[in-house]
Amino acid sequence: MAAAKHSASKRSVSAQARRKQLIMATIKCIAQKGLSAVTMADITTEAGLSQGIVNLHFQSKEKLLIETLRYISDEYRSGLDNIFHDPKKTTAEKITAHIRYDFSRTIIDRNKLAVWFAFWGETKSRPTYLSICADYIADIASNLTQLFAQLKTEGNYANVDPELTCVCYTALADGLWLDLLVTPKGLKPKQAYNVAMHYLATQFPDHFQA
Fold first, then answer.
1. HSE-up (13 A, CA, CB side) for residue 87
2. Which of 5, 165, 200, 206 is the most exposed place for a label (fewest CB within 10 A)?
3. Cβ of 60: how many Cβ atoms within 10 Å?
4. How far is Cα 208 from Cα 210, in angstroms, rounded to an integer?
5. How many Cβ atoms sit within 10 Å of the Cβ of residue 181?
């Protein structure tokens, strides 16, 4: 019985590893060729796996694409959740950690940025993509707005609108991500982080410095 459980566990781990291998190959292929041009042959070649393996784990190209989008979204949201729910950090420290995470190597990986913008560009015609992106954005915006509201109270910032601050920061971050993707030699991650912190310093000057 123990041997059977061990064997099942090995198969489960192997399946999970195969799925991630295919998702990572998909990310690289989309970044290189674009969402509409990438083919299953591109993905299987990049992954070094057969078409049958892809069909076994994802059944179709569209399901593989959807799971790739979920992977990127969940990875980002998981990292921010760890920050948001960290009981050892103050409100200001959580906000700073959030900004630092937004411009960390994990997030500004050019392949992942290219894939995110590729999927976002297809949301108008692909309801499933829109649903995934909208759900993830709403969840993150809710948490960040809550942090801004808490800091407004703690610092007695009477003129701060937490929701507007969140909208402005999100738009700024999206623009900086795009700059990092299309002009990697023109804008560096540290500079992007400093730009974001400069904006927050205009809203919460007693807690952040430009």
1. 0
2. 5
3. 11
4. 7
5. 18
**Which residue carries 């076994």 as its tokens?**
56
Instruction: Look up tokens 């569209």; give the residue.
Output: 62
In angstroms and rounded to an integer, the radius of gyration of the C-alpha atoms of the chain is 20
In the block, tokens 């999206």 appear at: 174
Q: From residue 82, how far is each of 67, 85, 86, 91, 191 by CA, in Å?
A: 22, 5, 6, 14, 25
Structure tokens at 75: 């990875």
pLDDT-based confidence at residue 16 (cuts at 50, 70, 90): confident
- Say whether pLDDT at 96 is over 90: yes
Residues sharing a CB contact under 8 Å with residue 199, sequence separation 6 or more, in sequence order: 168, 169, 172
Is the separation of the CB atoms in 201 and 160 below 8 Å? no
Q: How many residues does the chain have?
A: 210
Over residues 111-130, the pLDDT tens digits come to 999 999 999 888 888 888 88
| Tokens found for residue 167 | 């909208």
Which range (33-47, 157-171, 194-208) has the least confidence?
33-47
Cβ(203)–Cβ(157) below 8 Å = yes
